[in-house]
Amino acid sequence: MIYKTIQGVDVPALGLGTYLLTGRACRRGVAEAIDIGYRHIDTAAVYGNEEETGQGLRDAGIAREDIFLTTKIWMDNLIPGRIAPAAGESLSRLRTPYVDLLLIHWPTPTMELEACLDEMQALQEAGKVRHIGVSNFPPALMRRAAAHAPIFCNQVEYHPYLDQSTLRALAQECDALLTAYSPLARGAVLRDKTLKDIAAAHNKTPAQVTLRWLLQLDNVAAIPKASGSQHRRQNFDLFDFELDNEQMRRIDALARGKRIGNPSWAPAW
Ligand SMILES: NC(=O)c1ccc[n+]([C@@H]2O[C@H](COP(=O)([O-])OP(=O)(O)OC[C@H]3O[C@@H](n4cnc5c(N)ncnc54)[C@H](OP(=O)(O)O)[C@@H]3O)[C@@H](O)[C@H]2O)c1
Fold first, then answer.
1. Which residues, in sequence order, are bridge partners of residue 228?
2. Angle at 46 between CA 29 and CA 231, to 5 degrees
3. Is the Cβ–Cβ distance between 156 and 247 less than 8 Å?
4. What is the reported pLDDT for 190?
5. What is the pTM of this model?
């Protein structure tokens, strides 16, 4: 495993994303991921799979402190007074006394950011949340959040087709993690000629090369989702090779402003 040290804490840089993993597939998938060696799991209240994620962790028989577990507060609960109950419901569904990271899932134009962060910090002081963070925060909003509270992470879309160097520099400045979601561009990287060439040179796949590229970037973690056992194993099998500077630069050069997750409620990026 590669770890990223953020605010003095070592975070496993490769995690399992669970969006669209539900029911028994989620429970089994999370348990199997732990067996493979994953120690970082990403869920969210809105994914509707917190119960199964928690069950999977218990099935795996892993000590709670050996897992880095993230969940997220959905937009309708970004109101002072609602955050603590929403987080409490997530903890009940996960059946865990705390999460390692609690994120604001998406910013909204009406949220009172500072008041929301205050409530999240109170949860931190109560031991229900180890670290607090944000997701889908563009640079100006990330700066505002970090000026108010110790933001541990900004989780954003990040893959070879979307340059996130501004947010990455900001993460370094704030001693925060930049967690890459949709790191495989939902599968688009698999067909890429440059990534295929680099993969062939290492006897790896384009998915492994893409994840390795992210993990070699300062302050970056990646949370690929894989519903199949083979993909979960393949995505974890990337600690035995390294991309050189030229290969890193060739992948950097693939950026073309392609954004997959751009719902109607997205902020102005
Ligand atoms: N904060 C946010 O707003 C936000 C938004 C989106 C996602 N996320 C998080 O980020 C996670 C990952 O993002 P994502 O699910 O959007 O996209 P992703 O991880 O880029 O792509 C997932 C797709 O790639 C396939 N895949 C995975 N490993 C593969 C491999 N080795 N070879 C070939 N195909 C492979 C998966 O197929 P199979 O499923 O068939 O294995 C799935 O179709 C989510 O699950 C979620 O936890 C967060």
1. none
2. 25
3. no
4. 97
5. 0.98
Length of the chain in terms of residues written: 269
Residue from 19, 50, 68, 178 to probe ligand 1 pocket by mutation (most atoms less than 8 Å from CB): 19
Domain 3-252 has CATH 3.20.20.100: yes
Query: Measured from the CB, is residue 150 less than 6 Å from ligand 1?
Result: no
| Annotated domain spans of the chain | 3-252
Q: What is the mean pLDDT of each run of 10 residues along the chain (269 residues)?
A: 98 98 97 98 98 98 97 96 98 98 97 97 98 98 98 98 98 98 98 98 98 98 97 98 98 97 95
- Between the CA of 2 and the centroid of ligand 1 the distance, in Å, is 20
Q: What is the pLDDT of residue 117?
A: 98
Is-contact 210 200, C-beta < 8 A?
A: no
Residue identifier of the C-alpha nearest atom 22 of ligand 1: 186
206-215 and 245-252 helices, crossing angle to 10°:
100
Active-site residue list: 47
Q: In testing the pocket of ligand 1, which one of 205, 231, 234, 259 has its CB within 8 Å of the most ligand atoms?
A: 231
Q: How far is the CA of 249 from the centre of ligand 1 (A)?
A: 24
